[in-house]
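Each record in this resource describes a single protein on a pair of labelled lines. An example record follows, reproduced without changes.
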Amino acid sequence: MFDVLQHAVRAKEILTVLARHGFADLISKLELPSGLWQRLLPHPGPVRTPGERLRLAAEELGPTFVKLGQLLSMRPDVVPHDILLELRKLQDRVQPVPAAEMLPVLTHAFGRPPAEVFLGWQDTPVATASLAQVYRAQLPTGETVAIKVRKPHLQHRLTVDFELARWLAGKVQLHVPAWRHLDLPGVVAEAREGVMRELDFRHEARHQRYFNSLNSSPAEVYAPRVFDAFSSETVLVMEWVDGTPVGQLRGDESVEDRRRWARRGAESLVRQVFLAGFFHADPHAGNLYIAKDGRLCFLDWGLAGHLTRRLRHALADFWVAAVEQDSERIVQIAADLAPVDARPDLRALEKEITLALREELNFAVGRQALGRAMLRLLFLLGQQGIPLSRDYALMAKAVLSIEEVGRMLDPEFDFRAATAPVLRELHRERASPGVLLRRSREMLRQSVLGLQELPFELRRLLRRLEHDSLAINLHHRGLEEHDDAVKIAANRITLGVIIGALIIGSSLIVTTGIQPHLFGYPALGIVGYLLSAVLGLYVVWDIIRHGRHR
């Protein structure tokens, strides 16, 4: 088990920052040693919403907690959507790592100093984030490239912070019943796995290559090309995108161009989700660039979602039902995807979903927040014990981001209209005669194979019956408490019999006057009385301690 005292300074810093941002009451419930912690906690700061306080605390605690907050913003099944929307505002506020510390990373990755590999190499980064820094240079062939380099010594710092976060989450899980259903240690463990995966830039490179191979509109949208010969686990070299982030457009572009970019981004994302089953999980305004040639470029592929065909089709039904405000159909789809042991209150869930859809997708008054609606629906399902696929949560966040980008570009942006062609194409994929015929053939093939194997399985069963080797295992559920009660009762009856035998035997010994004597009575009889008294008192005390039901 992780020893918190080994990193007490960092633990104290985390608790102090949380208290400063208004979480002192929560920390006081965790039964931490008062001499070590409570005297170090300052009074909370200005009154803010829980989401704002959580976001500010994460930004002050640094890269690990910023990443943790960003990944929590992709868990609408766990985090209430008002806090989730606030966590989406988390920003990396970090200073660039000096060139002297970054140079060994680059030299190790390339086998020689970067100035000997690239033309026009400069030590000043063009962008800095919590995990990496980006440099601009040229290949010997003359192509301008962006070089994304992982910061040094991240592994140890992230490990310490995530272990402390897991320890703190375990304390909250144990001592705050209202948060127990959230499984915070599991959420932290999942976030840690995601961040550690993001540290390996080979995953990001594969995502970019895969998107470009599936992209059906390379003349409109694309991802930067990766130069595999120069890329590794710690360094990613890709083509330089000469353009402007959507969030930094000056506003002098034509209305038609802005509408076209909004439509392209939305259509591309929905095509990624429903047709490819592979999509960019965080297409916010800083990750979408308008290139000089007018194309839309998706940057930062560290986090991507993956959907199987079954999940894609269920999601399409879920999507259409949400747009049509068919809460009954949403509940039915969610119940089909839920774990077998889930026991949701479907009537209450349908009522909550109906209310959420009316508030977030009220087309009569022009409210078309499909992304917010999807986030809220996933949270409601999670509250009822129906945790849908993590990639559904990534999809909902991606939809929310692309909606915001679309309305930033075009205030009249209609997400439904932009995505309708993709949904029609998906419907053709699911219901075309060729697809139906192929599925029918597959079903017939599986049925024939099953019939062919049936005689063999029957012979095997009869052979086991013949040799008395067939065993049926029965497991009674819900009888554990009764089993414990029977054992406790049997033990007490046994003790009662022993106590009774001791009293009777001691009485017989006393009447006989056998030597030696103690206080004028046979010592063996006195010992028997005392032993029976001790055992009797123990039985009475045990009954009182555990209650009458035990």
Notes: The radius of gyration is 33 Å. The longest strand covers residues 132-138. The mean pLDDT is 80.
